[in-house]
Amino acid sequence: MKKGLTILAIFLLTLNAIIAADFRGLSWGATQIEVMKTESGKPSLVSDEILIWPVTLYGFNANRIYNFKANQLVSTMYLISESEDFEKAWLNYNTLKNDLIKKYGKPSVDEFTTKNEKLSTDRNGAYFAKEFYESTMWFLERSSISLISNFDQKGRFIICLFYVDVKNH
Amino acid sequence: MKKTVFLLFTIIFALSISVSALDNVNWISSRNDIIKYETSEPVFEDAEFLGFSTTLYNKTIEKIYIFKEDKLISIFYIIAEDRKELEDYLTSYQEINDLLTKDLGVPLFKDEDWEDERYKESPELALILGDVRYNTTWIKNNIITHTIYAKDLSVNHIIFINPLDSIRETQPTSAENHPDFDDI
User: How many domains does chain A have?
Assistant: First the structure.
């Protein structure tokens, strides 16, 4: 009986590893059709290598981008370009970052930099001065996740959240 | 000499009051605390708002205190504008910006948000049409944002004061996950 339970536990653990979800319930290697089944609405771009859906994420308008190699999902990305409510964007960004930490644990890299020396220890100040660059990364067993943010030349707050299949890169 | 030094101290003290008026806010104040603190009667009030008619930099303003569960969370200074010429709005904005800079120092952030650049050569027209919004922000003890924008051809000229903690407190208050948690 005990042996039977052990075998069942090992089977369940193995099964869990096999079907482990890497991004929104999908595993790396998913096909375009499998990805489309998880999305609602029409993609804004479809090609052999890319599928894009306009979505909202943590109060931002974002593009959810899926990248394929030989019809197998190898990476995904949220691309956010925010020019509207400056203070709200900061709140949303920090909520997103905190939730990523909650979900994936302490990041392996968490660096904030600014060109303004006076603000080198003032993350809030650097954001409001639009002299803010931040890079946060998690290296997981199957994926690497990177949250990168900075300001573009037009002063828009740009956020990229990448998920990459480590076995395909 | 003694008199001159005394006068100098008086001026510095007076200046420090003008700074503290904008940047030193007791955020644990209740509605009753504010009513006691203000020298005039509120011109309007309800559970969440207290409004006073007063002056700032010799301009008539509405000072609005906003409360949540009887705790002060935000202050607005709405600057009354009754201008004859369109460019007067931007002149007024610049005048107040200069006075705020004298009180608070160099702003951390000064921005023009253009929604439509069709009248970029004529910013005063762009302002009244709602094509552009001007913002200047200081981060001191509080976040102080000076802004001018128009909606439905009506110009709003406002100074917002919010506690620095409103930015720091970024964790959702609810124990439940954010609705987008499964998407990340």
Answer: 1
